[in-house]
TrEMBL record:
Residues 29-145 form the Dynein heavy chain C-terminal domain. GO terms for molecular function: dynein intermediate chain binding; dynein light intermediate chain binding. GO terms for cellular component: dynein complex. This is Dynein_C domain-containing protein. The lineage of its organism: Eukaryota, Metazoa, Ecdysozoa, Nematoda, Chromadorea. GO terms for biological process: microtubule-based movement. Gene3D superfamilies: 1.20.1270.280. InterPro entries: DHC (IPR026983), Dynein_C (IPR041228).
């Protein structure tokens, strides 16, 4: 009987030490997704080169708006993902914006409203949107900004 109670105490000590180090499962999944997304997305989109003739061209202005919109969206997503990683690591406190991001990405697995700068299908989940649609759009905008000569 005494041996059994000693074993239980030993397990209790181990469990209490693990509780401080083990994160909730949703946090582990969120951290993995954020790391994958940050690794796959480009850091930035190149800006278009300005010339006096280009500013007068409506096609150039159209592409400039699209590239600037994509660049702002990419910067916002990078900032949010880094902030979520810091929360998962315990380096940053949650705020209303990050709580909304966590709820949307973890619970409903949807694309957060602040990231919806263009129309996307209603049923698409965030992981699929990030890995396919957004990644390809950003690559396309980057290619356009490098090769656009009007």
């Amino acid at each position: 009987m005494l041996k059994m109670s000693d074993d239980e105490l030993a397990y209790d000590e181990i469990d209490s030490s693990l509780q401080n180090k083990v994160a909730p499962s949703w946090m582990v999944v969120l951290k993995e997704h954020c790391q994958v997304w940050l690794a796959e997305l480009p850091k930035e989109i190149c800006k278009l080169r300005h010339a006096k003739e280009n500013v007068k061209n409506p096609i150039f202005r159209f592409f400039e708006r699209e590239i600037n919109l994509g660049s702002r969206l990419l910067n916002e997503i990078h900032k949010d993902l880094i902030e979520l990683l810091e929360i998962c690591d315990g380096k940053h406190k949650q705020n209303n914006h990050t709580l909304e991001l966590i709820a949307t990405l973890v619970k409903s697995k949807e694309v957060p409203q602040s990231w919806k700068q263009y129309t996307i299908p209603r049923d698409v989940i965030a992981h699929v949107w990030m890995k396919s649609d957004l990644k390809e759009r950003v690559k396309q905008l980057d290619r356009l900004s490098d090769n656009l000569t009007i």
